What we know:
Layout: H1 7-14, H2 18-27, E1 34-37, E2 40-43, H3 46-59, H4 64-73, H5 80-99, H6 103-214
Antiparallel strand pairs: 1-2
Amino acid sequence: MDRLLLKKDVTAAVDAPKTTVNDWIHDFRAFIPIVREGRTTYYKPEAVNVLLAVKRMREEGLDKTRIARELPGLGFSIDHDEMVNKVEKARGHAEQAENARNRDGFLAVMQTMSVAMERMTELEREVQESKVRMVEQDRINRELTELIEKQAAALEKQEKYIEESLQVRDQKLMESLRLSQEAKREVLATEEIRQKEMEEIRQQQSKGFLARLFGK
């Protein structure tokens, strides 16, 4: 969209009820870029992007104050030209009222100008606060990332230690089993030798007894 848009075009592009779009345009007018030609107000294509962002945040449940704070962080800046035009217009009305010596009208215009200036100051402050929050959030994200990386490294180290400990334990168990089997074999061999020696002794004793019995 390169051409200027009428309000009906903006409403159709945002795909929201006309009254709702009108309310958003009024509530967030500081962010809505417009062009006035005579009595006709045209909207720049960027206005649609602003309103679509407002629509999305409203669907997410954000209130107007929160949305106004979030918009600068999404890359939507305050339309300073429009704010200046409003201030200049208010100042012109003030001058006219003063020239006409209409004190009541003059005070009303001065009040309007004051409100416009306060709103502009407030929006600029909110933009700065939003930037500060973004910087703080980036710092927190970096710290969380570093913490997660440290925890992951510690966990990996712990897992390696456990794995190595299990390997050492298994090696010791296998060595103990080997030594146990060797000891068992030695015991069996010793027992076998003892049995043979006992058998030889019995045989020798039997021969000696028979020799004595028969006089041989």
